[in-house]
User: Fold these one by one.
Assistant:
Number 1:
Amino acid sequence: GSALTLRGVTKEFNGVAVVDGLDLELRAGEFVSLLGPSGCGKTTTLRMIAGFERVDGGGIFLDDDEITGLPANKREINTVFQSYALFPHLTVAANIAYGLRQRRVPKAELAERVGDALALVRLQSFADRKPAQLSGGQQQRVALARALVNRPRVLLLDEPLAALDRQLREEVQIELRLIQNRLKTTFLFVTHDQHEALAMSDRVAIMNGGRIEQLADPETVYARPRTRFVAGFVGQQNFFEGIERLGAGDYRSADGIGISSQAAVAEAATAAIRPEAVRLSADSAHAAHAAAAANQVGGVVEAVNYLGDARQYVVRTEADRLLLVRSATSAQPSGFAPGDRVRASWRAED
Ligand code: ADP
Ligand code: MG
């Protein structure tokens, strides 16, 4: 069944809808990321779910119970904030125990649950420290333990890893996912980082202008984006505008590139090809007669960026547009150099 449901949820600030009839359904035990650019309404959405912000329209349901009007402390939902929001004067253990003390959980049970929560985030030996004596990653784990010790039905996380440096962030991503796997608590995880969302989630909800544009598993979102915004946000970089349909599966872009594709497109469509799906080959004389074939274009390498595991090329095509290409170093050890004439091609299914 669904653990959390939002139906037509709307929030206005000064007459402007920043969350605009938002629909979202999370299955029990699922890890869903809410992915979108800054200002698209992610935090406002979480605040309404948590009960910190009044809803102007629509309804919020936990399992099948409506919670739209309930005060925050009556909802079995907890939130982890980017800022950690730990009490600086309390120890790690006291921070984690805070919510249980408020609810007058008996002493023995409290000690056991705090111990379990400390073990869950591997901070048993830090129980008596103050937050200021911990690293950023450790403070984040305390915030997580403090939220989970209440055994919420849904855990909301608002960009909890944004303040961590890259290597630590990747470690905490893995750890967070393992914890969620173990607890099977439903997680709604907000991020503006598409790699983080794709790597961590069972499903990704891509948000734009106060609405969800697509909710699907990471592979679907990446390979079959439903809108141009979704495609761009998950890393598409080569767009062919003004697609004209010539016949079944046969199209042409505004700049004259033939495109064959199984995708059934409406009028005024845009095609996109991911940089890593484009193959480069040296342009030889006998390739010239193939110039009219679909899914390829000739050009000249304008720039090369060496990324270690891959090279990224900027190719200027015959029609004077820039095409971004990424090829694995292992597949093409020597690569191409600026000024090389190349043919860029891709498969119809890409
Ligand atoms: P995100 O978390 O996706 O970056 P937010 O939900 O924080 O976006 O904000 C969405 C929009 O709502 C932004 O334009 C923001 O300026 C506006 N907003 C958020 N909170 C308030 C508020 N309390 N008063 C007025 N405008 C707000
Ligand atoms: Mg935010």
Number 2:
Amino acid sequence: MRRFIVAGNWKMNTTKDTGSQLAQALAAEVPKEKTAVEVLVCPPFPYLSTIGDIVNGSGVGFGAQNCYHESPGAFTGEISTEMLSDVGCRSVILGHSERRHILKETDADINLKVKKALDAGLQVVLCVGELQSERESEQTEAVLDTQMTGGLEGVNSAAFDKIVIAYEPVWAIGTGLTATPDQAEAAHQYLRNWLKDHYSAEIADSTRILYGGSVKPDNAKELLSQENVDGALVGGASLKAELFIPIIQAAV
Ligand code: PEP
């Protein structure tokens, strides 16, 4: 039985005040005791400590949106996994499409980060997904294969209790376009089979695969009711408690 995850990726949004208010509203709403849904927020780096203090002891976890693959040292402007752990962060999003396509991160870069984060004991939310042109030219599965192979190179089975995959078709991120439930399910099924072929049936069965791409309260239930969809990675709608809470509730 896979436990759902609903994760909010705040991206480069919020201020200390608006982020704090959002975190307070979520912490007040999400039950403290373990429920069927794991809830996570991923604020910008400067607010991690503040948000971490607010959600501490609540049912809301917090994670980062990126990390660097080296241990602390002379890497100006970067953030280490040690720093994330130091502020109580337990998860990190890696390979988000904005980092792949705007910041030009390669699968090799992402793979180094995945391995470093896993070594540090962090939960990794590894994002994969195709561009619109790749979908139109029927390259979706080839792209997912490349990103899974590249991102997970050298990662062994034992690490999978800390790995979550997020399928995020790039054409659906922040655009208002959403994959249909059938499109999402087909990609998730492909990813689950990929895990079976490259790891094992047990890992394929137990690994959570989230959908991300313009998830909103009105489409969450249908997407989340697909057999191979184990939750959502939410961008825009995670910035408003009145939108994010119904998405969490849709997963219950
Ligand atoms: C995201 O940033 O991961 C995302 C899915 O964004 P949005 O929900 O805004 O499409």
